[in-house]
Amino acid sequence: MTPWLQRQRHLIDFTVEALARRKGRNLALLVVYALMVFVLASVLLFSQALRREAALLLAQAPEITVQRLVAGRMDLVPAAHLERLAGLRGVASAQGRLWGYYYDPATQANYTLMVPLTDPPPPGTMQVGPTLARFWRLGVGDVLSLRTHDGRAFPLSVQGILPTDSALVAADLVLIAEADFRAFFGIPAGLYTDLVLKVRNPREVAKVAQKVQRDLPDTRPIIREEILRTYAALFDWREGMVMVLLSGAVLAFMILAWDKASGLSAEERREIGVLKAIGWETSDILAMKLWEGLLVSVFAFLLGYLAAYVHVAAFSASLFVPVLKGWSVLYPDFALTPQVDPFQVFTLFFLTVFPYALATLVPVWRSAVADPDAVMRQ
Amino acid sequence: MIELMDVRKAFNQGRHNELWAVRGVSLQVPAQQVTVLRGPSGSGKTTLLTLVGCLARPTSGRVRLHGRDVSGMTERFLTGLRRQTFGFVFQQFNLVRGLTVEQNVMLPAYPLGLTRRDLRRRAHGLLESLDLAEHAQARVEWLSGGQAQRAAIARALVNDPDVILADEPTANLDTELSRRFLDIVRDLKAQGKTLLMTSHDPLICQAPEVDLVVGLRDGQLD
């Protein structure tokens, strides 16, 4: 090992001893520091994971969804529109969808009732989402009675429960047969909630959307990329909102960290004087303090970031779910895979570790460049 | 040989509380001998010691070490001198609390970049010679006054300096411990070290080991 490396090793040894000697102060700082990183990293990791999840799900979504607008509000789409769109050049297939929301006063939650495009359950039965099934403790064969649009009881027996890994989209989902759906909501045959189009050539999606609007001026085509952008904006907005709320805490931490890092106790000042007097160079003392700042901040960063990863991966960010996932009564129960974005990690590292390490140097620099004779007068 | 030529030192110069601690002292400290700066409190003994030991620069005048003027040198150079040429024994010992005796003794040698094994070997040799080896792993705050002083002496010697500077070395010691300190002084002198001490303790000033006593009063030679 070269003398320079040996020297750094001795400095680190001394720094670790110094940290241990003031363990109360340093431990408190480490906990607050790690907590701060944990909160910020949790928000970032969770939002990133949600964005990824949404993107993965929407990758399966149809390229174009067509809604009908009447007086600026969404209305049912007649079957004639479906036939017209199916004949458009570039459209591979067109299907009418039936879906709607049902408010259940008992659970004070909204369920999504839907007719699946393929393999619908037989009339009188339903397939329910995992969260809903758990809430009502439903098993296959159980009967759940809902109220129709005109107040009649509408019993449906459970034919199956949707798999848990679909919980993000299927938590509150109820899949029923077309005839049941129309009877339940009072929607006559020949009308759909909206239409979905598959386009042969992905590069023609925008062109086909233009044609839809031109041929059917009372409709609004929504392309998949727009939904993705909306989701991204929504998550960005929520992430930003949480960050704004947290900014007070971040500021408080920064003040605390600055105070702890930039203030030197009388004992520390005396120690610097002793070290200079016995032959330590100013650069040795600065290096020692820089090591101290780096050890505390890097350790706190790693601790906080790891805890945040576990929080998001193993506990689905349970602390931030209500703010970040949405306003729902039946929260989907699903596992997220946190996405570690190197740029995000670097930004967080830079914003937390760098200022702290620098803050430790300022007062030491002032102390270390002074003549060490003061130590003789104590 | 250390030489001081018309050395003056002011604190808070130009302010209302300006104080001239040393006022034109010229002095030669012979090599390999024991010199004591004697004087009452406030006579400038400690300030003179800091100027000799390159812990501070004189406001005017020159300090020469082996014929070289060190009073105008850069801080980096002075640090090197402090590390290689001088060993300090402070009045309050100034050991770093929370560290062991061994760690304290090794501290001045950290910047040399020696291996830990070499550092420990040096420290243990010194602690043994000062009869402190059994306390090597004890924290310094557990030591008695005499042990703390010997730990401070070991720390001063770890880089094998030519000159030992000691500020009021017996101020916190009883007569018995003061005599033991003089034994150590005799050994160091026999090894060829130059010793410069401040003291107003008659036991020190009249000790046979001391070659030269320099009186100071109000910042000037008495």
What tags apply to this protein structure?
heterodimer, A: 378 residues, alpha+beta, Barwin-like endoglucanases, 2 domains, 10-stranded mixed β-sheet, two-stranded antiparallel sheet, 12 strands, B: 222 residues, alpha/beta, Rossmann fold, 6-stranded mixed β-sheet, 7 helices, 10 strands, 32% helix
Fold and architecture overview:
- With 378 residues, chain A is α+β, with helices and mostly antiparallel strands.
- Chain A has 2 domains: 3-58 and 230-377, no CATH class; 97-190, Barwin-like endoglucanases, CATH 2.40.40.
- In chain A, 55% of the residues lie in helices and 18% in strands.
- Chain A contains 12 helices and 12 strands.
- Chain A has helices at 3-21, 23-58, 79-86, 130-136, 167-170, 178-185, 205-215, 224-262, 266-277, 282-313, 321-324, 342-368, and strands spanning 64-70, 73-75, 77-78, 91-104, 109-115, 125-128, 143-147, 153-161, 173-176, 191-192, 194-199, 219-223.
- The longest helix of chain A is centred in the middle third of the chain and has 39 residues, at 224-262.
- Chain B has 2 domains: 1-85 and 164-222, Rossmann fold; 92-160, no CATH class.
- Chain B has helices spanning 45-52, 75-84, 101-106, 116-129, 145-157, 175-190, 202-205; strands spanning 2-11, 19-29, 34-38, 60-65, 68-69, 86-89, 163-167, 194-199, 212-217, 220-221.
- Chain B is of the alpha/beta class and 222 residues long.
- In chain B, strands 6-7-8-3-9-10 form a 6-stranded mixed beta sheet, with helices on both faces. Chain B has a 4-stranded antiparallel beta sheet with strand order 2-1-4-5, covered by helices on one side.
- The radius of gyration of chain B is 17 Å and the shape is globular.
- The longest helix of chain B has 16 residues, at 175-190.
- Chain B has 7 helices and 10 strands.
- The A-B interface holds A 1-7, 9-11, 14, 17-18, 20-21, 267, 270-271, 274-282, 284, 369, 371-373, 375-378 and B 46-47, 49-50, 53, 55-57, 75-76, 79-80, 82-84, 88, 90-92, 94, 96-99, 103, 107-108, 110-116, 119, 155-156, 159, 167.
